[in-house]
Amino acid sequence: MFTSSLVLGAAAHTGVNWGTILFQLVIFIILMLLLKKFAWGPLMGIMKEREEHVANEITSAEKSRKEAAALVEEQRNMLKEARSDAQSLIEAAKKQGDLQRDEIIAASRAESERIKEAAKLEIEQQKEKAVAAIREQVASLSVLIASKVIEKELSAADQDKLINEYIQEAGEKR
Amino acid sequence: MLEHKAPIVTYFGLNFNLADMLMITIASAVVFLIAVLSTRKLAMKPTGVQNFMEWVMDFVKNIINSTMDWKTGGRFHVLGITIMMYVFVANMLGLPFSIVINDTLWWKSPTADPGVTLTLAVLVVGLSHFYGVKMKGTAAYGKEFFKPFWFMFPIKIIEEFANTLTLGLRLYGNIYAGEILLGLLAGGLAQSGNFGWLYAAVPMLAWQGFSVFVGAIQAFIFTMLTMVYLSHKVSTDH
């Protein structure tokens, strides 16, 4: 039974089936052309497109990365510049302030000196005036005393007492 | 169990095996449907079946790249994918069942016929000669037959025929043997006694699994050897 089964699947071959061979050849070529047109072609197209897309994306990513790096560098430089500008501004302001302070101090010192001088002068003048007034009084008192002394014959003790009296009087009058 | 007949008709003095032609058409239609349906909705972001088809393409591309550089091999990409898909589908067709009507075998693998496989082999070898002449020129192509020594010429000629025969018959032998064993299990063991189908189920399952493996491997080998023969003819670096 098995020996006869051996030919199962094997059709009895009587010579070469050139017709089948021709058919296979034609069908295969048609299949290949159809697939190229309807399946492999579009698929290859999209794969190529994707490849290009990825390449483009990589290129543009690289480009924008470079741009970003350049921008960062620029910003950094600007920041540095601004910082140094601010530093110099502060520096200048400080210098200016110092200068102004010194000026103000010098001016006020001069002013106070001037006021002091003026006050001193005033004091001197007042003193002069007072001294002159005293001198005048003393003179007139002396004259008065002398006239009183001459009027009265006085003892030495009385005289002292009298002088003191007058002096006292002069003090009070003033 | 009797010998199955082939439905052969003769037109114009040519023998047409109708069963083979039917199966060739079915195999081609299946390949075409799979390919077209899976590439209907193409997207830049591939999903589902498109991923699978792209994997197949890359697979064939790798086969080509392993034998020649892509600049020469790129033009064989379509040929390679078509051969692999077609041979694979053809190998698979005969596995699930076979149909015998009035003692005539109608459903089988088309690749279980030496005529079909040798046709493919001749097509491949013929293409290799065609591209050899086209890409290297007739003189350089002819010189290849006398390298490395002039007396190698007869061997080179024999090699061409041997290549063709082995390429076609390897595929035929593997698939044919697989189908014979399936036929034996289904038609012999399964019908012996009342529980024959039960005894036959286990080896049937195993052998069908193995045949799937063999069919896939043979499709791969056929594509690989196609590219090897093509590269022998079109490459200049040896």
Q: Tell me the quaternary state.
A: heterodimer
> What is the spatial order of strands in the main beta sheet of chain B?
1-2
Q: Main sheet of chain B?
A: 2 strands, antiparallel
How far is the first residue's CA from the last residue's CA of chain B?
54 Å
Summed over residues and divided by their number, the pLDDT of chain A gives a mean of 84
Helix content of chain B: 55-70%
Q: What is the N-to-C order of secondary-structure elements of chain A (H for helix, E for strand)?
A: HHH
Total DSSP helices of chain B: 8
DSSP E strands of chain A, number = 0
Proportion of β residues of chain A?
A: under 5%
Mean pLDDT of chain B: 82
Q: State the total count of DSSP E strands of chain B.
A: 4
Q: Looking at the structure, what is the overall shape of chain B? A: globular
Question: Which structural class should the secondary elements of chain A be placed in?
Answer: mainly alpha
Instruction: Report the sheet-strand fraction of chain B.
Output: 5-15%
Please sum up the structure shown.
Chain A: Keywords: ATP synthesis, Cell membrane, CF(0), Coiled coil, Hydrogen ion transport, Ion transport, Membrane, Transmembrane, Transmembrane helix, Transport. The complex is a heterodimer of chains A (174) and B (238). Chain A is mostly helical.
Describe the structure.
The complex is a heterodimer of chains A (174) and B (238). By secondary structure, chain A is mainly alpha-helical. Chain A is 90% helix and 0% strand. Chain B contains 8 helices and 4 strands. The radius of gyration of chain B is 21 Å and the shape is globular. The mean pLDDT of chain B is 82. Classes of the chains: A mainly alpha (174), B mainly alpha (238). At the A-B interface, α1 and α2 of A face β1, β2, α1, α2 and α4 of B. Chain A: It is found in: Cell membrane; Endomembrane system.
Compile the SSE list and pairings.
The complex is a heterodimer of chains A (174) and B (238).
Chain A (H helix, E strand, L loop, with lengths): L1 H4 L12 H134 L4 H18 L1
Chain B lengths: L7 E4 L2 E4 H21 L9 H20 L2 H4 L3 H17 L5 E3 L2 E4 L6 H23 L1 H6 L9 H35 L8 H39 L4
Antiparallel strand pairs in B: 1-2, 3-4
Helix pairs in contact in B: 1-4, 2-4, 2-8, 4-8, 5-7, 5-8, 7-8
GO molecular function (chain A): proton-transporting ATP synthase activity, rotational mechanism; proton-transporting ATPase activity, rotational mechanism
Organism (chain A): Neobacillus novalis
Keywords (chain A): ATP synthesis, Cell membrane, CF(0), Coiled coil, Hydrogen ion transport, Ion transport, Membrane, Transmembrane, Transmembrane helix, Transport
